[in-house]
Each structure stands twice: as structure tokens, then as C-alpha cells.
Fold this protein.
Amino acid sequence: MLNKKSPKDMTEADWREQLTPEQYRILREKGTERSFTGPYWNTFETGTYSCTACGSKLFKSDTKFDAGCGWPSFFEPVAPDVVTEHSDTTLGMVRTEICCANCGGHLGHVFPDGPPPTGLRYCMNGTSMTFKTEK
């Protein structure tokens, strides 16, 4: 995070200054990147995925799987409290939106069609995350 303010104290002007226009559209305006176009949908290196906006750790690579949907998909976050869930009824659907618990940034949605052990598919926007490889 470039700004020295706490994520909870950031204004929309602060977020616009810190994020690229595409990051702002997705993280702050609840946008979605087109499938198979964003970063990390086909990345399978060992490492950690963190929130682009605030740097909070979100997902480990050992929970990532290829869902064939064109977005990075995971079966669980690093801890239950790093993300929040919200009802999303846009686009004529009922979905569960996933946001970063630290800064409120929109990450994507979770669906009940993932692999064991959770049966969940956290379908995330790659633009909402950064990736740091681990050796």
C-alpha cells in the first residue's frame, strides 16, 4: 500500500490516487475483468495472493485450482476473517460477493461448486490481487 493512511481512513480520492483506473474500477466500483484476461488465472507457482489495495494476505497457492472459468479460483482463504461476504443481486442473479476484510475492496464471488475439502470456489478478479512467489 502506497498511502500511509489506514485502509479504513482512505477516501475515494485516496484510492483513485493509489490504484490504477482498472484496479479502482474492480476494487472500489465492484467491477469484473473479462475471463481469461486478468492476471493469475493460469498461474500455478507456489506463493501467496494478497489484496492489491491494502496488501492483506488472502489466499495461498496450495488452495488454488483450475476451475476452467478464466479467473483465479481457490477453495479457501488463508483464514476465515480475511474476507467478508455480502449478498449481490446485480445482473439478475443472487450471488455472494467477497471483499477484503481490511479495506473493503471487491475481490469477486464465492460459489458452492468447488472441490473438496470445502466444496467452495472463490472466483476472484486477478486485478484485485498481487502475487508473491515463495521458494
Q: What stands out?
A: DSSP finds two helices and nine strands in the chain.
